Sequence to fold (772 residues):
Amino acid sequence: MQIEKEPKILAILCKWCSYAGADLAGTSRFKYPANVRIVQVPCSGRVDPIMIFRAFVEGYDGVMVSGCHPGDCHYGTGNYHARRRLAVARRLLEFVGVHSDRMHFTWISAAEGKKFADDCSRFTEQLKGLAGTEKTLAREEIAT
Amino acid sequence: MNEIRKKIRSLFDKGEIDVMLGFREDPSTGEVKAAVFKKDDDLNGFVYDDRCVQNLVNYLPTLTARYKRIGIMLKGCDGRSLVTQLVEHRINKNQIVALSAACDGVKVRGEEVEKCADCAVSVSPIADHVFGEPKEKKDPVYARVREIEKMTPAERWKFFSDYFAKCERCYACRQICPSCYCEICIADQQEPKWIEPSAKLSANTMWHLIRAYHLAGRCADCGECERVCPQDIPMRLLNNALEKAVHEMFKVRPGTVPDELPPLVVLSKDDPDTIMEGKDE
Amino acid sequence: MNKWHELKAADLKNFLSQLADKWQVWVPYRNDGKWEFAPYDERRELEFPGSVIHVSVKQLLFPKRRPLATYDEESTWSVKSVTPGEKPRIIMGLHPCDVAGISYMDKVFLRTEHKDALYEAERKRTVLVGMLCTEMEKTCHCTDRGLAPDSAQGMDVVFTRTEDGYLFQSLSEKGAPLLESEYLRATDDKPDKKEWPHGKYEIASPEEFMEMYDDGIWHELSDICLTCGICTYECPTCVCFLVADEKFKGKGERVTVWDSCQLQSYSRMAGGHDTRKTPASRVRNRTLDKFAYSHLRYGQISCTGCGRCVMVCPLKRSFPQLGTRVTERIRNKKKMTRDATAPAKED
Fold:
């Protein structure tokens, strides 16, 4: 399989900051590409890298994870753990051959609707630049 | 070796240990294998040389349930393994008497094992009795990891997918690893079924990634996983890549400092955001 | 008794290329020091190992992942079958223990009441060309299991190395067409019969093993076994599998995948109940299955003495030693009861 011309992006957003930020992008009518599919988690600290691995295996072209800014986590310290986990997950995925541009890990607060829209647009463009290259990790098609 | 045997005898006589975990030679194959010695056993059967590859720390959880005090013979890498098990409270230090001999590398069927060239510790970081002179050890170089890091993503995936496709999902790597001890392994979870049991490339890749990830910051690099794989998959490559990454990012090498917490358990407010961002961001 | 045919060493490649016209020929190759069975390639260097190789041959008839059926977007199921018109297959270079393993798999998969159609199709189109061993590895003990390194039982064609080439003999209807080649010449030569050592891992009878079910020895034996399962994956007669459904983008596939009774999840059931939670129960299960249960079911014990379990065990434990230790305990128990019931000595 190859990276699609219209890449599919999974965005895992924390409920209190990033998801609210995405919501704000919507209500403020900031345009961002429909390539992004959003999943809400209570905190970025809940994100288990196995979700990221599984997303790539299920055929997603890119995965984005976002949480509250360090110091502002709704649960206090969840995003500190997330930072370390995402760092290790990135290193592991890059090591086995997943292109660095396929992952976007960031902090987006509830007020940063514009940042969310801009990040999505930029990430989508980045992935379009990889279109046609091998979609590493994606699972095999089933031949009937 | 006689010095070690004398010490074990004296530990038995003083009642400081109930059993001794060490190695015995198998006369029919000429190989050495793990053995439990009791007080009345003839200690001339106790062997300790460069054939003693196995990591004995694996047996401690079952043995500590049956005996009060256990003596264990450790190389440097085994000792790192013991440190990680103690930090995770899987075993109680009160029940262990650790003996460690300065290790100069082990051999499998006469050939030096690859992990020894990159050894971080010559003697167990936790040892009640040390034999021989510990050697000066340099920081590991991770030569194989650096070779992979020179490759493009496409080359890396070609390299790894060839190996992962061979995996039979026998889980020997999991069973032999002292740090893999979940009662129900994530690979066996049904709801949700994170990892398919199928022995195909994508499922095998999931397994190897998650295994490496769950050991990040906890792997002591005892090398057993690579030794036991029936398909010769270079398991340690993934573990070493993360060991290198964890050391660069958090300045920790698992198992080398007693009582040091695993980096992925520890909370730090001071990590720079750059660790999770891509190089171009 | 069919005649033996000789093949000069220099003609081997030509003979195999000729066979490759009508059959898919699979031979053992050494890849970076490790053996594997692969389709014949005249560019690769070919050598036949003189004794068993640790690669599991069952993979060729019973793959680690075997698609059974697929369904498409309209939810129409189609059951897989071997592609019609595909060339029949020769597996060449199997050893007597491998062939004994395949004979056992035949018993399991070709039972009349539950025949495995896919296996049957693969098996029918496969010709077994077995090779007599010229030596026994340290781990070999087929002679203790009723076999021999120079037994041709179950083979369609048997061959052996000689000083200047090979000797072939056809043993079945399937095998006869292979020897119709100008490179083979009928000869009165016969391979020498050898005396092979035995007695390394002799075991008790299946009935005696069954009586050990409740014995406490299993706890001792499981002390050092980590139930990793490697022995089951390389064993030629271990054929446990699980059936898994995989779906992606509206389509689905049902596959069989190798499983192992030694794994912690093997007997876990919905609700959390587990009949073989302890390592001791799993070690007992494998030992009794190999040396007793299979005899009850199929009339033969399923251990072929190939020694692969010993070769691959990470702890250098050997599965055969489990058999011999239980046998030792059986003998000791019998001795004790005999002494206890012996008539009192006369004064």
